[in-house]
Design brief:
four-stranded antiparallel sheet; 5 helices; 3 domains; 24% helix; two-stranded antiparallel sheet; alpha+beta
Length: 249
Amino acid sequence: QASFGAGGQRHFGEDFGGPRRVQRGFSFSLNDMPDNAVIAGESPFYVGAHPPIRDHMSLAQKWNPLDGISRHWAETAREALEMPSIGVAGKGAGGPGALASSFLKPGSLEEELAAAERRVKALHSRLFELESNAPSGAAPAAQGHLKITVPRPLDHGKLGVAVKDMTVVSIVDPRAMQHSWSVGDRILQVNGAPVCFMQEFANELNKALAANQASGKPLVFDIWRHAAPAGPAQPAAAPLPAPAGDFVP
């Protein structure tokens, strides 16, 4: 004997007082619940109705579980760079490939190449701007603590400058100017050896000349150069002969 029990289940060989009536229930989705019912914990159906009668709700009253899901952070700098350009392709700052590069996969080789190309273009634009705004005329002469390197002395081991009280007072050979000597330079060291007096300077200079002749070691002079006076640039003075009594290395 077969019978149907609660929930529509079929039983064989069992009899529990005769067949029972199949009981039915109902179910509903959270999508059918209005906002006020969800908040108050109430049912969207009339209480006591048989069968339950659904309340009349418009689509705007239905609760949407996706409500409130949105972006809560600001746009990053990388996203701003990758946003596609708006306008006609080939115009504007992006250039012909700006629109295509915005759709490249982040981290890919193509994206890295596109970013490198944008950086190069930005550097070129910056260099052009700096060159356009650069003041005309010769650059100001260096000042302060400087080094003068003489790879090879002039004829007969000369430097081509006249020195008095450790200060260059004149240029006696025009070739000395190619080593950046300037009138007013005060000599502080010769090949790293401090010199405070003319005798010390003469001794260290002879050692440096001997080392240069033996091994080709260049002569390195530490000097102090004062700032040039303000005003229009003056033409370079012609080399002058050393006054009597000055040391001419």
